[in-house]
Write a structure and sequence with these properties.
Blueprint (H helix, E strand, L loop, with lengths): L2 H17 L25 H10 L16 H11 L5 H21 L9 H22 L6 H15 L12 H32 L1
Amino acid sequence: MTCSRFHLVFAICFLLCASHTPVSCLVDEKLSVPSATTVVYQPTERMNTVANATFGDSPSPSDCGTSNVSCMNLHSFCYTFYPGATMDCLFELLSHMCLCNFNVAMAAMNATDWCAWGNVSGLYSNLSLCTENISDCLGIPWPNPLVEQTFVDIHHRFFKDCPMEELSDPPPPIIFALVITPILLIPVMVSLVVLKTKNGDGSS
């Protein structure tokens, strides 16, 4: 077992024992692992090593943490393994407590179901709430560059091939109605103008 993996396993036990919660993935909180490399925020070499060693393409539920951990315990974790509530600590907490669960849930679904919003909306909301709660606990503004890059990576990994329904053409009947309506209104408006003009000339 490598040193970094040992530290991560020890950190997981630290959080779970502090919160008195079992090692399990919450059923409602099915959360993913984005790329460890970000554009705005560059994770450290240790963080990349931990992410690559622990969170592969298909982590198991037992690899994931639970979000039922108090802010005090999160602070204790950060001050034990990091200089404090830093972005490095936030990265590791999000990877283990939020993204891992999302990834497990997405891996359990067929790829064809990823593009159905009804299938992923709950998971997406849970992920957003998880990142917000942990950021707030650490006193880090939310959203932040790390969280933003996390969602960019998730969209690139899971949703890049989904059709953009809101940008697709409307059904032919709707197109026909939108086109024919102004065409029919033009002669009606012309007739009304002519009739109004004639009535005006007759009255004078």
